[in-house]
Each structure stands twice: as C-alpha cells, then as structure tokens.
Design a protein that fits this description.
two-stranded antiparallel ribbon; single chain; 3-stranded antiparallel sheet; 93 residues
C-alpha cells in the first residue's frame, strides 16, 4: 500500500453534447469533475457552490468561502458553460 496518495491523472475530452473540450480533473474527495478549460474567472464572480479551486497537487475542491479573496481565481464546471445546455433564464437551448 502506498504511503502517499498518487496524483490522479485527468485529461481532456470532448463534451458529448456540444463537442467542445472539457478537462477531467480529480477532486479532493477522490472523484472527478469536468471543468471548462482555459477559464479562470475571479472567484467573487462565481456563486460559492460552483467555485473550483486548484490545489498544489493538481486536484480541485469547491471553494465556498464568502467573501473569497479579492484576486482569487477559480474554475467552473463545463456543464455551466456548455452551449448545448438550456438557458437558465429563458429555458431555450
């Protein structure tokens, strides 16, 4: 048995709904989340339960601290930015 946890390698795949790339990243809870690549908005612009913060070992965790640090960046799940998902305001796709 390993004394230290191994880094979990993620990868990039294509969304089956829109065809755009998404990053598969390990979470602190040893699960996976599909994140929007190359998108790191300021954390205060993203609702607390949707802020994914990258840890030094490459994993991510939800960052629910309110208010977040002024210049803290975060990542968001691809499903929130996916153009194939229905609009949350009007309900149209």
């Amino acid at each position: 048995m390993e004394k230290e946890p191994r880094r979990l390698s993620g990868g990039r795949s294509r969304c089956p709904d829109c065809g755009l790339p998404q990053d598969r990243v390990a979470t602190l809870d040893h699960d996976w989340v599909l994140l929007e690549p190359d998108m790191k908005p300021l954390a205060h612009t993203v609702p607390a339960d949707h802020r994914w913060i990258e840890l030094s070992d490459g994993r991510v965790m939800v960052y629910g601290v309110c208010p977040p640090e002024q210049f803290q960046r975060c990542r968001v799940e691809h499903r929130l930015a996916c153009p194939a998902q229905p609009c949350r305001i009007c309900g149209h796709g």
